[in-house]
Amino acid sequence: MKIQYQIALATCLAITSALHAAGDSPVDFVKQIKPILAARCVECHNSETLLGELNLQTRALAFEKRKAGPVIVPKNAEKSMLYLVLTLPARDTKAMPATGHRIPKDEISTIRQWIDEGANWPEGEDGAVTLKHKNSAR
Questions:
Q1: pLDDT band at 12 (very low <50, low <70, confident <90, very high)
Q2: Prediction pTM value
Q3: CA gyration radius for the chain?
């Protein structure tokens, strides 16, 4: 009886682990990352402003070689400046975004997961990030 209980328990644990792993779908750049970049990053990191020698409007521009080193290191968020500057304390001069509200922790976690998964960033229109203009109330 004890062996049957252990087998049943092991089976349940295996099924639970498999279901959990199946629920962890990869981050979708267009649906999850692009809106964050559009709302919080490209206002300062675009072809006109280019703060920190960084343009986040396309994959090619984001991955361009910079004096300060790579912004995104696919499969390694801990070495990616894009992720690291989001996790700095708000008072740190290198913390991003430099102005406005901090990016919520769940969105930072999504960015981390996206980078750790390989930072898949499509080309073309799907990968083009444009600035979200804030509507002014009159």
A1: very low
A2: 0.78
A3: 20
